[in-house]
Amino acid sequence: MTKQYFPTPITWELANQKKSTVRKNIIVGVLALQGDFLEHIQTLERLGITAKQVKLPEDLENIQGLIMPGGESTTMANLLDTFGLREPLAQKIQEGMPVWGTCAGMILLAKKLIQERPIPLGVMDITVNRNAFGRQLDSFEVDLTIKYLDKPLHATFIRAPLVTEVGKDVEILSKLEDGTIVAVKQNNMLGTSFHPELTSDTRFHEYFLSLIQK
Ligand code: GLN
User: Fold this and answer.
1) Which fold has domain 12-213?
2) Is 127 in the pocket of ligand 1 (CB under 6 A)?
3) Residue 8, Cβ neighbours under 10 Å: how many?
4) Model confidence, pTM
5) Cα–Cα distance between 11 and 79 in angstroms, integer?
6) Which of 38, 57, 114, 129 is the most buried (most CB within 10 A)?
7) C-alpha 71 to ligand 1 mean position (Å)
């Protein structure tokens, strides 16, 4: 049976109440090589969390969790190699550091991609199809029901990847109406096809923080 990490659902009230608490002792890294890392940093700061930009292997020290933002996964993967981050990052994640990949970030966490490029970190037991919604549906928004959140979250999809297969240890947190998997969890790892950092709704960030504070 799947272990439940956050037994009470994250509500607006809880997210707002936490917003006024300063939690500077919690340091969350945000991979800052490319993509929308600033939006994640702003959201974390609004939640009273210290956000730290991660660009080099030494930046992985003294962080309690890491967010890998959306952007362009091939560019991000190239920069991971250029800055020597690939191995130390994969190792930290395998040692249990909580990590959350949004969109391109989730692509990089995957064990397998339908496409040949980029070469992902290969830490999460999922298969991902990049740009899976095709040109017509390049970008769209939808109210998504997500496990552990009290009410649907208004989710933004931008040239989004989708999860085509999951391993037995992966918990599915959300699907579109047609059954497409768009949010997953495996132990300390979270992946979402969409971008909660682009809205004012901080509940998914709170959910990620609950994995750190566990
Ligand atoms: N399509 C992008 C990629 O394959 C991901 C898009 C995003 O992060 N919004 O890297």
Assistant:
1) Rossmann fold (3.40.50)
2) no
3) 9
4) 0.92
5) 37
6) 129
7) 5
HSE at residue 163, side-chain half, CA atoms within 13 A, is 33
Strand, coil or helix: what is 16?
Answer: helix
Q: Is 206 a catalytic residue?
A: no
CA distance linking residue 29 with residue 45, whole number of Å: 12
DSSP 167-208: -TTPEEEEE-TT--EEEEEETTEEEESS-GGGSS--HHHHHH
In testing the pocket of ligand 1, which one of 157, 159, 163 has its CB within 8 Å of the most ligand atoms? 159
177 assigned to active site: no
155: tokens are 């989710």
Summarised one tens digit per residue, pLDDT across range 26-43 is: 999 999 999 999 999 999
DSSP letters spanning 34-47: SSSHHHHHHHHHHT
- How many other C-beta atoms lie within 10 A of the C-beta of residue 47? 21
Distance (Å, rounded) from C-alpha 213 to C-alpha 37? 22
- Is 108 a residue whose pLDDT tops 50? yes
Tell me which residue of 117, 78, 42 sits closest to 67, measured CA to CA: 42
Given 13, 39, 116, 197, which residue is catalytic?
A: 197
pLDDT per residue as tens digits for the range 131-165: 887 765 688 999 999 999 999 999 999 999 999 99
| Band of pLDDT at residue 197, cut at 50, 70 and 90 | very high
Q: Is residue 197 among the annotated active site residues?
A: yes
